[in-house]
Structure to design on (125 residues):
């Protein structure tokens, strides 16, 4: 625990160091930008887990639909079951697509923010 705190402190000093040469106003803005990066990384991690779970559910729903589809012509009840499984599969695919889009959007925004941070707060040679 203590090592983690020390590591974060050293990281903060290393990242804020280049901004010190830019002036006090830049130091404050660089620290503010830096403070937003860690929560964004946590959000990306959470969105990744959600996307992976949605992918697994979509795959399982697809397998269930394929299993039901094989028996579609056996009876009307089997056809209804296949239709329900197809609807569940389509819903799972849509959820996966939404989660994928949310993750991509968050990663794109994070990368943009990091680029802005690096351009503004890194030492200029």
């Amino acid at each position: 625990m203590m090592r983690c705190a020390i590591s974060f402190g050293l990281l903060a000093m290393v990242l804020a160091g280049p901004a010190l040469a830019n002036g006090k106003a830049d130091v404050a803005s660089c620290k503010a930008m830096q403070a937003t990066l860690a929560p964004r990384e946590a959000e990306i991690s959470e969105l990744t887990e959600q996307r992976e779970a949605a992918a697994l559910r979509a795959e399982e729903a697809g397998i269930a639909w394929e299993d039901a589809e094989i028996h579609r012509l056996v009876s009307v009840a089997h056809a209804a079951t296949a239709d329900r499984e197809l609807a569940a599969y389509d819903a799972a695919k849509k959820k996966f697509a939404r989660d994928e889009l949310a993750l991509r959007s968050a990663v794109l925004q994070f990368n943009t923010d990091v680029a802005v941070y690096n351009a503004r707060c890194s030492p200029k040679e």
Observations:
- Residues 3 and 9 are 10 Å apart (CA to CA).
- DSSP finds three helices and no strands in the chain.
- The two ends are 36 Å apart (CA to CA).
- The chain has a mean pLDDT of 83.
